[in-house]
Fold Glutathionylspermidine synthase.
Amino acid sequence: MLPYKSLTEPFHPETYLRKWEAVEKKASEKGFTWGSLYENYEDNQYMSDSLLLVPRGMAREIENASRAVNDIYTKTFEQIGKNPSVLHDLGLPIMLWDLFLKKAKTRFSYFTRYDFIASAEGLKVIEANTDTPVGIVEAAIGQEVLCQEHQLPNPNSQLGNRVRDAWYQVIKDYYIRSTDTLYFTCADWHTEDKQTVQYLMSCYPQKAKYIPLEEIVVEKDSVKTPDGETITYLYRLYPMEFFLEERSGTGEPIGEQFLVHIMEEKLQVINPPQALLMQSKAILALITEKKTEWFTRIEQNAIEKYFLPTYSTPNRLSSYVKKPVLGREGGGIQIVVNGQILEEDVDHYQNQQTVYQQYFSMPDQTIDTWDGPYTGKLLIGSHVLAGEPSGLFFRVGGLITGNLSMFVPYTEV
């Protein structure tokens, strides 16, 4: 468990809530507007104003682990290109295979978040969010506001510059001219996604426009805005597989035509389609299976150090986490320890292919909340932008890290 610094000592409910609301207002004014989330017919605290005190050595080790894990994912992506038959094992929609197999001209992802568990046994990566990662607004804006409140240094102070550097890499790799417009889109009703898109767009150094996903017009020859402007470059905070289900205002399916435009390079999307390929949790099983075949001895050492054995069946494991390969926000997860179900979600992703990852216990972490001190499980998110570790994002929640797990800022000591 990490030590933490409280804004309200000793804890008193009214004092705590008054101070929390003042901090939440400051964060909201800067663009982090979901300090609380309305779910299950009530307001839930999402932002904690406790500040985790993270040893500098631990922060550097997370950075090293993030770089090593990203290198393994990059090598795996290259190997899939040489061995396309493995696509059959990744649980991905068949209609997207042609996009995945198309020779990549870019990185598989420019905006990625790897999730780590830290313990006395070291760091272990449990999944990669390579397609549509969020948490970057919390790591940028939430961190800045809360570290100022605690009058302590913000280790993520350069995150905005790192986002900008990633955009320069995108501009270079996609050959985006200064006269070209990069459109940014997401589901307009989704506050978290919209504010994340607005933040990323604020860091983009060239011409940019926001277009709600609902307003994108897919025609037979191109993708356009409602005003008839052709969209050539599109940043989408929207899962690639969801586009297959999209329909026009008249109810006609448009997802296939949208994908055809990407295939024919009339439309360039960021993150690229290959980001979804690498988001499949079956990639973790592939890394386990191909460890000695695809990777050098040094890379094998990194896999043994940072990755957990993951398989397509649970036969080799007495304790494991069962994961849908394209599940999100903890949906469909089942935790089994010594043959007993410890926790599970049965409401989502029940029809997906699954993998079985060796169970690795998350450490306890206590923080302050509206209801007093709360002890939950700590998960570390590490943002990797254009291949560079760029900032951390801590959450504390239940055995399954879902969308109500609380964001907790940190400083280094």
Observations:
- The chain has a mean pLDDT of 95.
- DSSP finds eleven helices and 22 strands in the chain.
- Residues 281-358 form one domain.
